[in-house]
Amino acid sequence: MSAPTVTTHISDQLAEGEPVMTAPAVPIATVTAVASIDGVAVPEFTPSTRDGLAEQPATLATLSLSLPLSREELVAALFYWNSSDSAELVDDEYVRQLVVESVVNVGMGELTALCFEIDTAPLDDVTAEWLAYCRRRVAEVFPAAVSVPEQRGRTDYPQHSAGRPAEVVEAALAGASLRQVAVALYFSDYRPGDLARSGLEWVETCAAIGLDGLTAEVVNRVHAAPDDLDRFTDCRAAARVVLDAR
Question: Are the C-beta atoms of residues 140 and 214 closer than 8 Å to each other?
């Protein structure tokens, strides 16, 4: 499946009725910018350099760009924003808008650095939950991007897991099915062998975080066609241990 593609088209049109100007005067133009993701229009998109300015000097060039994005880049494009606004991500249109804002106004250089940070930096509980939610929304809004994230190779799992109250994990797992827990682990920071390496508490924490925002559509999609069958088989086995331990 092809990666989601952001297409932007930014141009300045000479304002109607403007006389021909001679140097050193600069003609005034009204800026227009359009963007789409895989053909779906993103409304109300404004390049940050033009924010709040109705008129700009006429531009000498028009930029049209088609940019394929990986799953990790899409996740980073959402993760960049404040997790306190997570409720707004239930709107698919807003998710696409944030992706375009990140690509154009934040920049791919910043997103590339953020991808590396996500892969390598320790995360506190709140940040880990925000990352899990961003992954859920990417999987839902961009089905072609459903894949397994690169695993971190971190060594601080037991310490990280111990920071989450047991009652929070208990509440998250209460009533969860084997299918749900398996997919939750599939999209989490769980790694094959974590049960022996880091213990049940860490694996339960991964499952609890992964369940946040998980939808039936994503569960069904992963069970029908997991991108990494070996990993998913391991996640199902780990999910059985987690549920049997309850």
Answer: no
